[in-house]
UniProtKB/TrEMBL annotation:
Residues 70-80 have a biased composition (Basic residues). GO terms for molecular function: ATP binding; polynucleotide 5'-hydroxyl-kinase activity. Residues 1-86 are annotated as: Disordered. It comes from Neolentinus lepideus HHB14362 ss-1. It comes from the Eukaryota. Belongs to the Clp1 family. NOL9/GRC3 subfamily. InterPro entries: Clp1/Grc3 (IPR045116), CLP1_P (IPR032319), P-loop_NTPase (IPR027417). This is Polynucleotide 5'-hydroxyl-kinase GRC3. Keywords: ATP-binding, Kinase, Nucleotide-binding, Transferase.
Length: 773
């Protein structure tokens, strides 16, 4: 490098007038390679871009393409030779010529060249690697031909790097437990003195937390929450002081709720609370009691290994998570990659407040929630249900989403009446619906007419039997409205093609007073007339912003949630339904606990005679018309079926049965299911086995609905039992099922299918209609 500098100084000394004499006119070959004028003694990279010459510099260089950059880097590695014919530096593309001072060293020149090359290479790297934020534009080398970039532009281009993690993350729990200051362990006697219902299990632990205004507590697991004083915000709902204990389910598969103390003006302080907590209540704080819950819901992770350990902290959580001492509830202080917290957007809160704060004396609130999938539609509908329960004693919930049902497994259109808020994902609060109809598929595509007729029948049931069912006892005891029951309708997320027409039909049948619509992404085609309220409707339309899918769930898909809901239903234990009064008929009993001690293959089933217990068997769905009478038992064996109850005279008994005696199998090939106006679905059942004896065909049935004798019709749809339900979690490493080697277990094939057609079939559903072009 020193020899090159000496040769350059010698050449400049021989031609002293070279700097004052203008150079020859550029040839066409050199005209495409203009030079860049730079300062003589740069100190910082940004100062290098300022020119010391007063002349207007017309030397601008376009950013080099990736191919040219490779050649430039290759030329930098080759040694530089000088000839007497001219200066070799002026013939290079990436060299900056120094015009005014000879003291500029080649190291400074190479610094400028390397800086420009690094900026150009950064632009090339930014093109190949996606930027960390879609809102930030990145440099594209395809713009080289569109504009020329000066040295100032080169040096001011920011380097695209991933954002650094903050040194201090946001704390999920700001509450610090201090014994006899803001924290107290309660005995069974203390619980009774506070007016709370004691737990059935004497070993259950309860703790009292005194939360200052704004303090938060984030718990992972299962626990009971009771508010003694003040107000608490939970999942977008404000809970006031009440002796009611709310069950909260907070697995890692869904956003966990955050308990936040809301400021309150508490002039009257209870005398039965501890002395050290009264000062916090006077300052606007709140008192909550957290208790243990014995529901065995954690055992569902043993059955469905996808959800194994979702109620316990993962290895990403550090610190003392069981500081409160509540079994099954873990304190989470810092966020991690596998935990998302529930956060209510401001636009959601504004819409919810405008609906729940207004008093409507003439119209009962009928709210319809619609929008695309993965936008937070089900989460908003659940929050709206909880908000309405703050003003009304009961709220009806019509589930129209077959794939992601809120209170039932998939494949059912159900009408539930809820009287307590629900906190947790759908598989933790399954219920026996007040009225339901079985469609047998996760989408209405196979039978849209039966799907719409089922919704129409449920709306008639709501308007005739539920909407104005007054409860004078509740009305006199509670300040909530009890003479009317509002309705929340959750529509499916199918917003393309036929789904748009079905959604419009549902909106016309529901006649809502309020419509909550999520914005559809611009990539999805939705005709604008269908996004408005129906003609003649005076419904108020609220537009909501969708939530990012990563905020709603953590590494769990909709198919995973359908699987856990199905398995949770067959292992659920529902409380007995009392028919002693008319008011209890409206209640939809929710699951109280789960029986996870035995797999489905080891539980005791019901054994019924097919010809004596059921009047008719139906098979619906794609390909159902090809099921002949001789293959019916093969279809029913191991199938998930719906148990239907038909009104008297609602079942057509004059249908031909394929020339088969009626006392064998009551089945008609290709027959349509009973009308939803004269039937309803009691629940789902699993036919675990079919046996043929001399006395007839006997079925072994597993179901959570009791008794089975009320259902006289079986209907088989497209839904199947998940593979997890066929396995035996008691065997180590899954080597056997109920003592039978796994290779000998029927209906299960281990390994990959071989041969043509053995792979999973892929169906294209992104074809557009002519009107959508």
């Amino acid at each position: 490098m020193s020899s090159a500098i000496a040769a350059r100084k010698a050449r400049l000394a021989q031609s002293g007038e070279a700097q004052n004499t203008p150079g020859p006119a550029p040839t066409p070959a050199t005209a495409l390679k203009p030079t860049i004028t730079t300062p003589t003694a740069p100190e910082t990279p940004k100062s290098l871009g300022k020119s010391s010459s007063k002349r207007k510099s017309n030397s601008q260089v376009p950013l080099l393409s990736p191919e040219k950059q490779k050649r430039v880097k290759h030329k930098e590695k080759r040694p530089r030779y000088f000839s007497s014919n001219g200066d070799a530096f002026t013939k290079q593309q990436d060299v900056i010529v120094i015009e005014d001072e000879e003291s500029s060293s080649s190291e400074e020149n190479e610094q400028i060249v390397s800086l420009a090359a690094s900026v150009s290479e950064d632009g090339m790297r930014t093109k190949s690697k996606r930027a960390w934020s879609p809102s930030n534009a990145f440099y594209d080398s395809s713009d080289d031909e569109a504009k020329n970039v000066t040295i100032n532009d080169l040096l001011d281009i920011p380097v695209r790097t991933l954002p650094l993690q903050p040194s201090t993350s946001v704390a999920l729990s700001t509450f610090q437990a201090i014994q006899d200051k803001n924290f107290l362990r309660l005995t069974r006697e203390d619980t009774i003195k506070l007016g709370l219902l004691p737990s059935h299990n004497e070993d259950d632990v309860s703790v009292l937390l005194a939360l200052a205004p704004g303090e938060t507590v984030s718990l992972l697991g299962v626990y009971n929450l009771t508010v003694l004083a003040g107000f608490v915000s939970l999942c977008g709902t404000t809970l006031s002081a009440s002796p009611i204990a709310h069950r909260v389910f907070a697995p890692r598969s869904s956003p966990i709720p955050v308990i936040k103390s809301m400021p309150s003006d508490s002039s009257d302080v209870r005398s039965d609370i501890p002395e050290f907590t009264r000062q916090i209540v006077r300052q606007g704080g709140s008192l909550v009691v957290l208790g243990e819950v014995t529901s065995h819901v954690e055992g569902l992770g043993r059955i469905c290994r996808t959800f194994d350990g979702v109620f316990t902290p993962s290895r990403w959580q550090h610190g003392d998570t069981d500081v409160l001492g509540i079994k099954g509830a873990y304190l989470i202080r810092q966020p991690s990659r596998d935990i998302q917290t529930f956060s209510l957007p401001d636009s959601w809160d504004a819409c919810l407040s405008s609906v729940t704060s207004e008093t409507t004396e003439t119209k009962t609130p009928v709210c319809l929630v619609k929008g695309p999938k993965n936008a937070g539609k089900s989460t908003f509908a659940r929050t709206l249900l909880n908000r309405l329960l703050m003003r009304y004693s009961k709220v009806a919930f019509l589930e129209c989403d077959l794939g992601q049902s809120e209170f039932t497994p998939g494949g059912m259109v159900a009408l539930n009446v809820v009287d307590t808020p629900v906190f947790g994902p759908p598989f933790t609060h399954l219920s026996i619906p007040t009225r339901a109809h079985y469609v047998g598929s996760s989408t209405p595509r196979p039978s849209p007419s039966h799907y719409l007729s089922s919704i129409h029948a449920l709306l008639q049931t709501y308007r005739l039997d539920i909407q104005f069912s007054a409860d004078p006892d509740v009305e006199s005891k509670s300040p909530k409205i009890a003479d009317v029951i509002p309705l929340v309708v959750n529509v499916m997320g199918w917003t393309k093609g036929l789904g748009v027409d079905i959604t419009r039909k549902i909106e016309e049948m529901v006649e809502p007073t309020d419509i909550f619509e999520f914005e559809v992404p611009v990539t999805e085609y939705v005709p604008s007339p269908h996004r408005r309220p129906a003609e003649g409707s005076d419904a108020r339309l609220y537009t909501l912003e969708p939530i990012e899918p990563s905020v709603l769930s953590t590494n769990f898909s909709a198919s995973d949630h359908r699987t856990i809901s199905m398995l949770s239903y067959f292992h659920a234990v529902f409380p007995p339904v009392s028919l002693s009064s008319e008011t209890s008929v409206l209640a939809s009993p929710m699951v109280s606990s789960w029986n996870v001690s035995l797999p489905l293959c080891a539980q005791m089933p019901y054994e019924v005679a097919l010809a004596e217990a059921f009047d008719r068997v139906y098979v619906t769905g794609a390909g159902s018309e090809d099921v002949i009478h001789a293959e019916l038992l093969r279809v029913l064996n191991g199938a998930v079926v719906g148990l239907l109850t038909c009104d008297q005279g609602g079942l057509d008994i004059d249908l031909d049965m394929d020339d088969t005696p009626n006392d064998v199998i009551p089945y008609t090939r290709g027959a349509a299911p009973p009308s939803p106006l004269s039937s309803h679905c009691c629940g789902l059942a699993l036919i675990r086995g079919v046996s043929e004896t001399k006395s007839g065909v006997h079925l072994h049935i597993l179901t959570s609905v009791s008794p089975v004798a009320d259902a006289r019709v079986l209907i088989k749809g497209e839904l199947e039992l998940p593979v997890w339900g066929m396995l035996d979690f008691r065997s180590e490493e899954g080597g056997s099922v109920a003592g039978v080697e796994k290779t000998m277990v029927p209906y299960l094939r281990w390994g990959r299918e071989e041969g043509r057609g053995g792979e999973r079939r892929r169906v294209r559903r992104n074809l557009m209609r002519r009107g959508q072009m």
